[in-house]
């Protein structure tokens, strides 16, 4: 019997329904959930790039870094320091004002100010091993905060002296203000280091007659300026001769380049035919 049009239509519908799932499978995964394509051939994973930081056991020195031994190897050889000549201080109601020590001995003096900015531990060993005589003019808050550091320098032979509490310029201030700054610092330094300072340096070297009277009343026998300054290893002379003279006082600070400053001062002293000596052996 020949198929009727209705039967043909039903057959087409059934055939389409049967073939549709197969067509969906051949079309691949649903794009909504399809992940990134992966290659059938395995690719080699790139090797990790070398780390920029070396392992703790192998630490190359940064460019320009100088070890403690580097500094020690460059300390000039000095003759033995001569016997100190004590400075005779005149009886007065004021501390004596000095920028250099009046002596004929071929010696010069190294002083370090402040204490708050930088305190590299290598400085302690450099002073100790090179036997550098240093006088520290400290602000009492820095001395209080970093007492072990300055005590270590004291134990290495350094001396602690007075540089006020707040490092403010004293010139022109009242006697009461200046005395509080100087005596307050002296009291604290005596408590911390077991010795009351006998020398004083006014911040910035600024002083007046009131400063010297207040310093005297707080126990200072002399107050100091300087004859050379040292910064970043460079000695800056106050005279055209560019030479360190007997009795000169070199000023530097507790800054990051203090190792270079100490070495620069030692070389300048040696070049001038002098030997470093301790300031308190002559004054105070």
Brief summary of the model shown:
This protein is of the alpha/beta class. It is built from eight helices and ten strands. It has helices at residues 5-26, 68-73, 121-130, 140-145, 147-155, 175-193, 209-217, 258-271; strands at residues 96-98, 107-114, 134-138, 159-162, 199-200, 222-224, 228-231, 234-237, 249-253, 275-277.
| CATH superfamily grouping of one domain | Glycoside hydrolase/deacetylase
- DSSP strand (E) fraction? 5-15%
- Main sheet properties: 7 strands, mixed
What would CATH call the architecture of one domain? Answer: Alpha-Beta Barrel
Based on CA inertia axes, which overall geometry fits? globular
The number of E-state strands comes to: 10
**Radius of gyration computed on alpha carbons:** 39 Å
Question: What structural class do the secondary elements suggest?
Answer: alpha/beta
Instruction: Average the pLDDT over all residues and give the rounded result.
Output: 84
Q: What order do the SSEs take from the amino end to the carboxyl end, as H and E?
A: HHEEHEHHEHEHEEEEHE
Stretches with pLDDT under 50, minimum 5 residues: 1-61
> So how many helices?
8
Our measurement of the CA-to-CA distance between the termini, rounded to an integer number of angstroms, reads 138 Å
Quickly name the level 1 CATH class of one domain: Alpha Beta
Helix content: 25-40%
Looking at the structure, the CATH topology of one domain is TIM Barrel
């Amino acid at each position: 019997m020949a198929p009727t049009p209705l039967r043909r239509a039903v057959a087409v519908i059934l055939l389409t329904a049967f073939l549709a799932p197969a067509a969906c499978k051949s079309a691949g995964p649903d794009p909504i959930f399809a992940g990134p394509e992966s290659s059938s051939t395995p690719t080699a994973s790139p090797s990790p790039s070398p780390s920029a930081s070396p392992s703790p056991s192998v630490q190359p020195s940064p460019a320009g870094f100088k070890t403690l031994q580097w500094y020690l190897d460059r300390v000039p050889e000095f003759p033995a320091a001569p016997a100190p000549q004590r400075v005779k201080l005149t009886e007065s109601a004021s501390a004596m004002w000095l920028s250099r020590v009046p002596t004929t001995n071929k010696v010069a003096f190294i002083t370090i100010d402040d204490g708050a900015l930088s305190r590299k531990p290598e400085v302690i060993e450099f002073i100790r091993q090179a036997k550098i005589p240093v006088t520290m003019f400290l602000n009492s808050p820095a001395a209080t905060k970093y007492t072990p550091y300055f005590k270590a320098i004291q134990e290495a032979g350094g001396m602690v002296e007075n540089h006020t509490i707040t490092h403010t310029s004293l010139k022109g201030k009242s006697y009461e203000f200046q005395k509080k700054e100087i005596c307050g610092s002296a009291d604290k330094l005596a408590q911390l280091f077991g010795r009351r300072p006998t020398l004083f340096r006014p911040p910035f070297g600024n002083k007046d007659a009131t400063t010297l009277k207040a310093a005297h009343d707080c126990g200072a026998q002399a107050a100091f300026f300087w004859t050379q300054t040292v910064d970043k290893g460079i000695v800056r002379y106050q005279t055209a001769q560019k030479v360190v003279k007997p009795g000169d006082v070199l000023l530097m600070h507790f800054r990051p380049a203090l190792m270079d400053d100490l070495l620069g001062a030692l070389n300048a002293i040696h070049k001038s035919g002098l030997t470093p000596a301790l300031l308190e052996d002559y004054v105070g």
